[in-house]
Specification:
By secondary structure, this protein is mostly helical. It has one domain. It is 87% helix and 0% strand. The protein has three helices and no strands. Helix 1 packs antiparallel against helix 2. The model has no long low-confidence stretch (mean pLDDT 91).
Length: 89
């Protein structure tokens, strides 16, 4: 297994990781921004106020996008396992 194969494998793993994490973090980031704007407008300075909406939206995104995340991870793992013989020899 040459260095370019290792780099390709690492790049693929990072791409899958970034896509999955982005699916979960971007909605939480947007909700956090909206709550922060609400806090600034109303001058409510409560640190825990943004935690519950972000937790809720992350849970909802996991319920909706969970099957897709599982499919992406399963596909990547299958391809990885199928390519083991080519990587060894």
């Amino acid at each position: 297994m040459g260095p370019e194969a290792v780099l390709t494998l690492g790049r693929s793993a990072l791409e899958v990781t970034i896509v999955i994490i982005a699916l979960l973090l971007i909605p939480a980031l947007i909700v956090g921004l909206l709550v922060s704007m609400f806090q600034a407008a109303t001058q409510i300075n409560e640190a825990t106020l943004s935690f519950i909406p972000k937790l809720f939206i992350t849970f909802v995104v996991m319920l909706i996008g969970g099957p897709w995340i599982l499919q992406v991870m399963t596909t990547f793992t299958k391809k990885l396992i199928e390519n083991i013989p080519m990587m060894i020899g």
